[in-house]
Amino acid sequence: MRTPYSFSVLRYVHDAVTQEFINIGVAVYSREAGFLRAICTTHYARITRMFTKIDGNRFRQLTRYIQEQVSAIGESLPELPFEPGRAIEQMLARVLPPDDSSIQFSHAGVGLSRDLEKTTADLFERYVERYALTSDSSRRDDEDIWRTFREPLDRRHVTAHLAPKRIVAPYYAYEFQRAWKNQVWHVYEPVSFDMVDGGSIVEKANRWVGRATSLNDSSERFKIHLLLGEPQDNRLQDAFIKAQNILKKMPGQYELIPEREAEAFAEELEREVHVHEKAG
User: Fold this and answer.
1) Do 187 and 165 form a contact (C-beta atoms < 8 A)?
2) Mapping DSSP to helix (H, G, I), strand (E, B) and coil, where does residue 190 land?
């Protein structure tokens, strides 16, 4: 049995007059199935190459926010009042009101699906991924690593317990997107070392040591959990080993978790969350 759905493409619109744009995400909605999901890219190299430089951190935060908020509305759909005429535009406007900003959802398209999750992924590949530059897809970024860790966390319903946390030190501050407090703040950061050369891997590790050193003067107690993505190129394993040794120079409390331990990490975090809830 096929289910009717509507979909909208998320676009970065460079010029409101010429309507030049790049697709950066998709959202799929089925009123019959009570389904609403979004997938957004965090890659912005294609935008900077075609148009102009943008604030990469801001772009990633915004696309992450849009994806997570749309999906959150989807999870709450069964609890929302039933509206026969409810359309995808109404759902998406709750997250991104239509205006003349550079990031906009397109007019809706429609289709029929036997598997809405697969259809969402297929539409993302069709409208977004296939146009990505080869250089962008040759390695994984931090958000790709987070997806590896998030899948087992989602299955255990742990992700909802994580929220952004800004750690502030006298001369530096950094906002971690996933954190929870259990006596001390536990902050979780995906870090991809799946790069194209060993020098970049080592330099990224050095930057994290510098960041942790600056944050170590914070008055708040916290522990950094780095979720490590390994290089897929076996020739870069030596550089990855060097990077891990560099990371071990971080001051304060920290933990390094390789992606191959994502399942065990999720299981342990689930246990800690449940113990904390019972104690509370």
Assistant:
1) yes
2) strand
Shared-domain flag, residues 78 and 166: no
Question: 274 and 154 in one domain?
Answer: yes
Collapsing DSSP to helix, strand or coil, 121 comes out as helix
Query: Tokens in use for 253?
Result: 């409390």
Assigned token pair, 11: 């676009």
Pairing of strands 163-168, 173-182: antiparallel
Q: Structure tokens of 14?
A: 């460079």
What six digits make up the tokens of 238?
């030596």
Token pair belonging to 259 = 């992606």
pLDDT digits (tens, 9 = 90+) for 200-218: 889 899 999 999 999 999 9
> CB neighbours of 90 closer than 8 A, spacing ≥ 6?
83
pLDDT-based confidence at residue 79 (cuts at 50, 70, 90) = low
Q: What is the mean pLDDT of residues 6-14?
A: 90
Q: What are the backbone dihedrals phi and psi of residue 161, each rounded to the nearest 5 degrees, phi first?
A: -80, -10
In contact, 131 and 46? CB cutoff 8 Å? yes
Domain around 150: 142-279
Decide: 221 and 187 in contact? Cβ < 8 Å: no
CB-CB contact of 144 with 136 (8 Å): no
What three-state secondary structure class fits 26? strand
Beta-carbon count within 10 A of 76 CB: 11
Same domain as 158, residue 264: yes
How many Å apart are CA 257 and CA 36, to the nearest integer? 32
Domain endpoint, select from 84, 105, 137: 137
Sign of the Cα torsion 65, 67, 73, 75 reads negative
For the chain, the straight-line distance linking the first and the last C-alpha, in angstroms and rounded, comes to 46
